[in-house]
Design brief:
Distance between the termini: 76 Å
Structural class: mainly alpha
Shape: rod-shaped
Helix content: over 70%
Radius of gyration: 28 Å
């Protein structure tokens, strides 16, 4: 393995470094997104039942005991339960603006690696081909015959760099799209839950006013 890395040229080290970084980001994001995911339907059913009994403190305690962005956003809305619908909606939207960047944390790093890894491989290909042509030029100057073995080093570097770049870029891009889909799913659950909460709190307030 070490021999192949050396034959791949200096770009191999950057590609390997990017692969380690990508792997770390994927593991971290999967772990944290799984922690953030809850059964949104069950959680909102429990919150709705508690709020219908006018137990605001109990509902807030349920949010505090539940991990994830949905509970944080719902709590922000419940704390404004006695305000107007626009104020409740503004509170949950502000909370969502804080939570969504946390869900998307480090995803741009994956996107960047997926884009630059094949470019690094291409750069390694170019440097490898340059080495091969340098050998041809030197042989031509000395009027010596060019043997396939003379070109092997540059060709090895070109092919290995391309292989390494694509081997990092493809799974990284797949992982990036998977994680984006998980974030989108969480955001959808957040939007649906907050809409239900705003409507519920608004209806409670309207009932009290009547």
């Amino acid at each position: 393995m070490w021999d192949l890395i050396q034959k791949g040229g200096p770009m191999m080290y950057l590609i390997i470094l990017s692969s380690i970084l990508a792997f770390g980001v994927v593991i971290e994001r999967i772990y944290n997104l799984n922690k953030a995911r809850i059964d949104a339907n069950k959680f909102m059913d429990d919150i709705t039942n508690v709020l219908k009994r006018n137990k605001i403190i109990e509902a807030i305690d349920m949010c505090n005991a539940t991990p994830g962005p949905i509970a944080h956003i719902v709590k922000a809305g419940i704390l404004k339960h006695d305000r107007s619908k626009p104020e409740i909606k503004e509170a949950v939207e502000e909370a969502a603006e804080l939570e969504i960047p946390r869900l998307e944390k480090h995803l741009p790093v994956l996107a960047t690696i997926a884009h630059i890894a094949p470019l690094l491989g291409l750069l390694g290909t170019v440097t490898g081909m340059i080495k091969s042509f340098q050998v041809i030029q030197q042989k031509a100057i000395s009027m010596a015959p060019v043997n396939p073995g003379d070109l092997a080093g540059g060709i090895w570097e070109a092919l290995l760099a391309t292989l390494a770049g694509l081997s990092v870029a493809i799974p990284t891009y797949v992982a990036y799209n998977y994680l984006v889909s998980q974030v989108d799913s969480l955001v959808y659950d957040m939007e649906r839950s907050t809409t239900d909460l705003v409507n519920l709190l608004s209806s409670r307030r309207d009932t009290y006013e009547v």
